[in-house]
Amino acid sequence: MGELSSDGALAGIREWGSPDLRAHIRILIDSNEPGVEEIILGSLDDAGPARPLLCRVLAERDPFRDPEYALRHFYAETDGPVRRLLGHEVYRSPWVWLHGITRLRKANPVERITPDATHWLATRRQIAVTALGDTADPAALPPIIGRLRDPKWWVRFEAAAAIRRLAKAGVQVGSAAEALVGCLHHDRQEVIEQAAAALALPALREDLLYARATLMPLAGAVVDNALDGVLAPLLLLWPGEE
Question: How far is residue 231's CA from residue 173's CA, in Å, rounded to a whole number?
Answer without folding.
Answer: 18
